[in-house]
Amino acid sequence: MTYEMPKLPYATDALEPVISQETINFHYGKHLQTYVSNLNKLVVGTEFEGKTLEQIVESAPDGAVFNNAGQVLNHTLYFLQFDPKPIKNHPTGKLADAIKRDFGGLDNLKQEMNQAAIALFGSGWVWLAVDAKGKLHITKEPNGGNPLRNKMKPLLGIDVWEHAYYIDYQNKRAEHVEKIWEIIDWSVVESRM
Which domains occur in the chain, in start order? Predict the structure, then answer.
């Protein structure tokens, strides 16, 4: 199995002004490409060769294989959750019901995820994830971590590595985190549940 770059369902400038073309070119075009290239080299001849990204992230010990697989999976989920003009700009159905049950509503979910993203020290990810019983959780994952390590399915991710926002927002992580909600395609998030 060869790991490949996800195909963006939008042009590299389509997410402006929330995420600039320059950021997409670096973040997607260079950072993610490096993770994909590294992972393809690292798995050759190992027990992880031929496994899915999810299988590697769930089972690989901490280290280079896990870090690169985690970042490929995280970035794939991240870039594919966006749409410049989302058809669904709020959750519906089962996901909306779960958000209301577990967070009291979408505004509370956003507030809690924003606070988690702002408070995460250093580089990493904040995820909305669902456990095997259907309960939603917000997880803070350092570096390339992913909720799969804790038997939860990632639904929506906020990247708080500086390369995700520094070109557009400099040191204003909170502003970046707040703006991301404008381009979330909830139909994608719902399909992951």
Answer: 21-80 (1.10.287.990), 93-192 (3.55.40.20)
